[in-house]
Amino acid sequence: DQQVKQNSPSLSVQEGRISILNCDYTNSMFDYFLWYKKYPAEGPTFLISISSIKDKNEDGRFTVFLNKSAKHLSLHIVPSQPGDSAVYFCAARGIRLTFGEGTQLTVNP
Amino acid sequence: DTAVSQTPKYLVTQMGNDKSIKCEQNLGHDTMYWYKQDSKKFLKIMFSYNNKELIINETVPNRFSPKSPDKAHLNLHINSLELGDSAVYFCASSQDVRGNPEQFFGPGTRLTVL
């Protein structure tokens, strides 16, 4: 059973515009949610996290929003840059970290 | 000054062989993990060690045996390799089990079983 889902396998955005990546989850016991970014042939690198008691966390161009009633979180990147092109994974912590299947973001110059 | 390192980066071997992947972290973290990323790109946890003690053991064939000689190292030994073991294996570490949730990942080891 897949407790964390990213329904969009890919997203294409123009440079300078907003990128919105979405993630849905089913387990209301998750206490933290995280976003990771992954380039080819590298390991995932941590981007930003949010505690389940918050609804927004911001770090520079990256903002994560959490809607607990909808069991939904999103990552906003503003403005998007070509270097942001990568696979983005959302993850949720319960007993372990459970990852979504990833969304390939392409930012076009 | 790599935080989490793995060796080798690539591993090509025949079915039936035994192989090991090594992982080291220099972050002073208490907890280390092994993940498998399969052909569908899912990242799934296999094992977790906290202070050299096994705390998570997912449904992994017992051909896979992790070993933690000390807090900074978590190695993965795989016996009798099968075609389905082909994947990218990532090592990761975190401060501890329940505190800061951030995990730091190594660069991955791409295992190809022929």
Model description:
The complex is a heterodimer of chains A (109) and B (114). Helices cover 0% and strands 56% of the residues of chain A. Chain A has 109 residues and is mainly β. In chain A, the strands form 2 sheets. In chain A, strands 2, 4, 5, 9, 10 and 11 form a 6-stranded mixed β-sheet that branches. Chain A is globular, with a radius of gyration of 13 Å. Helices cover 0% and strands 55% of the residues of chain B. Chain B is built from no helices and 11 strands. In chain B, the strands form 2 sheets. In chain B, strands 2, 4, 5, 6, 9, 10 and 11 form a 7-stranded mixed β-sheet that branches. Chain B has 114 residues and is mainly β. The chains are: A mainly beta (109), B mainly beta (114). At the A-B interface, strand 4, strand 5 and strand 9 of A face strand 5 and strand 10 of B.
Name the features:
heterodimer, A: 109 residues, mainly beta, 6-stranded mixed β-sheet, 5-stranded antiparallel β-sheet, globular, B: 114 residues, 7-stranded mixed β-sheet, 4-stranded antiparallel β-sheet, 55% strand
Q: How would you concisely characterize the structure shown here?
A:
With about 110 residues, chain A is mainly beta. Chain A has no helices and eleven strands.
**Helix/strand order of chain A, N-terminal first:** EEEEEEEEEEE
Helix proportion range of chain A: under 10%
Report, as a whole number of angstroms, the end-to-end distance of chain B. Answer: 34 Å
Radius of gyration of chain A: 13 Å
Give the class of chain B from helix and strand content and strand pairing.
mainly beta
What percent of residues of chain A are in strands?
over 45%
Give the overall form of chain B: globular
Order of helices and strands of chain B: EEEEEEEEEEE
Query: How many β-strands of chain B, per DSSP?
Result: 11
Radius of gyration of chain B: 13 Å
Uncertain residue segments of chain B: none
- Overall mean confidence score, pLDDT of chain B: 93
Beta-strand residue fraction of chain B: over 45%
Specify the number of helices of chain A. Answer: 0
The assigned structural class of chain A equals mainly beta
Sheet with most strands of chain B? 7 strands, mixed
Which sheet architecture does the biggest sheet of chain A show? 6 strands, mixed
Largest interface: A-B, 20 and 19 residues
Oligomer: heterodimer
